[in-house]
Amino acid sequence: DGLAEIVYEKCVGCGACARACPRNVISMVPFRHSKVVVVKCSNKDFGPEVKKVCRVGCIGCKACERAMGEYFRVEENLARTAPEKFDPSLDFGPVLAKCPQEGIVFLGLPGVEGRDGVAPGRVEAEFRTTVDQAEWRG
Fold first, then answer.
1. What string of pLDDT tens digits covers the 138 residues of the chain?
2. Sign of CA dihedral 1, 115, 15, 106
3. Where are the domains of the chain?
4. What string of DSSP letters covers 63-99?
5. CA-to-CA distance for 37 and 87, rounded, in angstroms?
6. Cα separation of 123 and 66, whole Å?
7. Burial track 74-96 (b if 16+ CB lie within 10 A, e otherwise)
8. For residue 105, which phi and psi values (nearest 5 degrees)?
9. Quick check: 39 and 78 in contact, CB under 8 A?
10. Closest CA to 57 of 49, 69, 66
11. Phi, psi dihedrals of residue 37, rounded to the nearest 5°
């Protein structure tokens, strides 16, 4: 679908992807907590132009800024976060729900309630050899 997606389980934080991206759509976000709230967009065009090229692009509507101005600011038609002000105890639910493009998301490790859908159960090894299947005659 043309969207850059980072596989966080494999990411080592080297920044090579951000440097190599020809459109500068990948940026390094500092993690001070196991989860942070980020804006999935870096397009500074006006809303109608953004919608033509991206389904999650920020249209600069300022809904996030009105809902939580201490954490979100819209500058140059693009919502930006203040990672240094992130507090995991804050309720970001209303902001995530208000974004018409669904471009504001949590990144990082899943919470306790989300781990079952992400982490596999315990895998028990089954040690069997051809000797285990042999019939002894003797």
1. 667 777 877 888 899 998 998 878 788 876 777 788 889 888 888 999 988 888 888 999 999 999 999 999 999 999 999 888 888 889 999 999 999 999 998 877 655 554 454 444 444 555 555 666 667 676
2. positive
3. 28-133
4. HHHHH-TTTEEEETTEEEE-GGG--TTS--HHHHHH-
5. 10
6. 47
7. beebbbbbeeeebeeeeebeebb
8. -140, 165
9. yes
10. 49
11. -100, 130
Strands 35-39 and 78-81: unpaired
Residue whose token pair is 């596989």: 7
Q: From CA 50, how far away is CA 52, in angstroms rounded?
A: 5
Helix (H, G, I), strand (E, B) or coil at 35: strand
Bridge partners of 132, per DSSP, are: none
Written as six digits, the tokens of 15 are 């920044």
For residue 73, which phi and psi values (nearest 5 degrees)? Answer: -140, 140
Q: Give dist(CA 58, CA 103) in Å, integer.
A: 7
Structure tokens at 95: 């902001």
Question: What's the start-to-end Cα distance of the chain, in Å?
Answer: 65
DSSP state of 56: S
Q: How confident is the model at residue 110, as a pLDDT?
A: 58
Structure tokens at 105: 């998301």
